[in-house]
Amino acid sequence: RNIDFIVPKLHAPHVTVSAVEFAKHIHNNYPGLNLVFESHVAHTIHKDLPFPIYSAAPADATALYADKIDLVTTMGGDGTILRAASLFSSHFSVPPILAFSMGTLGFLGEWKFDEYKRAFRECYMSGCSVSTEDLGDPHTRTATTRAIDGLPDPEGWDSVRGNGKCMGLNRTSKILLRNRLRVGIYDSEGRNINEHILPTSTAEPSLGLEGEPVFTAQSSTAGAAGGRGGNSPYLHAINEVSIDRGSHPHLAIIDIFVNGHFLTEAVADGILISTPTGSTAYSLSAGGSIVHPLVKSLLITPISPRSLSFRPLVLPLHTKVVLRLSKRNRGRELPVSIDGKRRLGVTIGMEVRVEGEKLERTEDGWKGGVPCVIRASNKNDSEGFGEDDDSWVGGLNGLLKFNYPFGSGS
Questions:
Q1: Do 174 and 188 share a structural domain?
Q2: Distance CA 42, CA 16 (A)
């Protein structure tokens, strides 16, 4: 299929211009690819493109995206990447994301837009299979010998390869797998109510536009299982899940359980459960630890707790954490948000159950995580392992100003 889903930053004219430029480049140089946009973006830019592009009706979008998309390209900041990942929040798998940093904060964005020709070429042509076993270790692997020789690698991450051939160890894209949280919301009787919650994808406005129609995918192609990724009974977060007091003047009172054991009654503005990726987002502002994205863990971070002894916790990835609203909340409804989007309000006795999503292979392919395309390091050891920390360390120093000294003369 080789369909490229382009997600530009909203309400940013310069990004829209860049998206048109990128789309023309892909169409002219990779004629076998179809380009897909969200419907409101497609209606904005299709008049500037002399070739058909594809979209989906908002009601069918999440199922169609999961079934048809092989690669996601984002143009914007970290919020744009979250928006793209949220389109697959109710599915087991997410296509690889090629992110161009064009927003306010680009901690997650790997590439500058002026590198788009090289970035897409290396992603499309690298042909380097990355095994799920390698992704579970604190590194990513560059192209294997079998891939360099053009031999099939049954353990590889096939959707990254496209139809290309490997360009060698020095010209290859790699995958950084960012773990997600698996979230279940349960009523006071223990029933999972996720199916009653709208998807976390961005709500697309009613178009109400006239003019040349956009080529639209047919919903009948999606299949009952929700595409190759399949529908999950859970929702997924790449950054964090939060319960907070909202507009109420009183602190939230939340009982926290870890692997079935009562941990504490939290009295605070709220509670965050974050991934390592989310450790540099809301959790960081709330005083949480910074965790490398390859560390298999999740974080519990209180938001302005009443007790000064309530410190942030870092737990193993597959720890089962339950947040239950205490009866002492006086019947208040507290908002639950996933990756910054409010999902619903929870009341006394309701639970939010969270654990790390598992990475696994099935007959239909891989499941779990958000694979992000990153540039290969120029430094490799004798076994072909690159140094994956370069961009992360650079982001800490350049964007977050880690341990930045005070004073203009520093």
A1: no
A2: 10
Question: Same domain for 32 and 155?
Answer: yes
The pLDDT profile of the chain, 410 residues, written as one tens digit per residue, is 557 899 999 889 999 999 999 999 999 999 889 999 998 899 999 999 999 999 988 777 878 888 889 999 999 999 999 999 999 998 888 999 999 999 777 788 889 999 999 999 888 876 544 444 444 443 333 333 343 344 444 333 344 333 333 444 555 678 888 999 999 999 988 888 887 775 544 444 333 333 333 444 333 333 333 445 556 778 999 999 999 998 888 899 999 999 999 999 999 999 999 999 999 999 999 999 999 999 999 999 999 999 999 999 999 999 999 999 998 887 688 999 999 888 888 889 899 999 999 888 777 667 889 999 987 665 544 444 444 556 788 888 888 888 888 775 55
**Is 184 within 8 Å of 321 (Cβ atoms)?**
no
CA dihedral (400, 404, 406, 410) in degrees, to 10, reads -120
Is position 145 within any domain? yes
For the record, the structure tokens of 345 come out as 């309000």
Cα dihedral across residues 235, 240, 243, 245: positive or negative: negative
- DSSP state letter for 69: -
Does 223 fall in a domain? Answer: no
**Residues 343 and 375 occupy one common structural domain:** no
C-alpha gyration radius of the chain:
22
Distance CA 222, CA 218 (A): 8
**Coil, strand, or helix at residue 6?**
strand
Q: Residue 220 domain-assigned?
A: no
What's the pTM value of the predicted model, to 2 decimals?
A: 0.80
* Amino acid in the structure at residue 342: R
Same structural domain, 189 and 332: yes
CA 374 to chain centre: 14
32, exposed or middle or buried, with CB in 10 Å at 0-12, 13-18, 19+? exposed
Strand 334-338, strand 240-244: pairing:
antiparallel
Please answer whether residues 103 and 129 qualify as being in contact, where contact means their C-beta atoms are separated by less than 8 angstroms: no
On whether the CB atoms of residues 179 and 296 are closer than 8 A, the answer is: yes
- Residues in Cβ contact with 320 at an 8 Å cutoff, skipping those fewer than 6 apart: 258, 259, 260, 353, 354, 355
389 and 308 in a single domain? The answer is: no
Buried/exposed code over 332-341 (b: 16+ C-beta within 10 A; e: otherwise)? bebbbbbbbb
Q: Residue 403 gets which letter from DSSP?
A: T
DSSP symbols for 373-395: EEEPPS-B-TT-BB-TTHHHHHH
* Residue 254 near residue 324, CB atoms below 8 Å: yes
